[in-house]
Amino acid sequence: MPTKISLKTVAVLAGLAVAGFVGFAPAGHAAGPSQPAIGADASAAVAQMGKSLLADRFSFRAQTLRVYADTNGELLHIAHSMKVTVRRPDKLLIEVTGDDGSTKLFYDGKTVVLFGVDTKRYASLPVPNTIQGMMKEVMGRLGVDFPVADFLTDNPDKSFLFGSPREEN
Prior knowledge:
Layout: E1 3-4, H1 7-21, H2 40-53, E2 57-69, E3 75-87, E4 91-98, E5 101-107, E6 111-116, E7 121-126, H3 131-142, H4 149-152, H5 156-162
Parallel strand pairs: 1-2
Antiparallel strand pairs: 2-3, 3-4, 4-5, 5-6, 6-7
Helix pairs in contact: 1-2, 2-5
């Protein structure tokens, strides 16, 4: 049975990770010895989140609000709701419904299919046999945006702390 990870739990843990990066020095004081970029508590929370996201099976729901510029340069705020179902290492289903229509992504370990529900158009592409490998290929070749990519990488804790899956080797 898939492990359900509450988006609120993940958001709190990610918030703790970000909080670990925030530091300040009062004006007029010289910087002391360098401190770790992230506190031990925040680091432990992100590590635990990473372990949870490496479960063999899990699903979660997410809502995003993205800002895009239209052809006239005006900003558009596009809301999306998504349901993500993961079966590691090589199965993924993402169902997205938003202001700009509905899309589904199916990945079976060999092929990824992107299906525009409203437009009845699809693209099929042979891809590597890992979720992270598939995401890199689809982002690179098709320009697909994965707003939840950090949750799906092979090292989600490192991805949250140090960069996007595009930057990992």
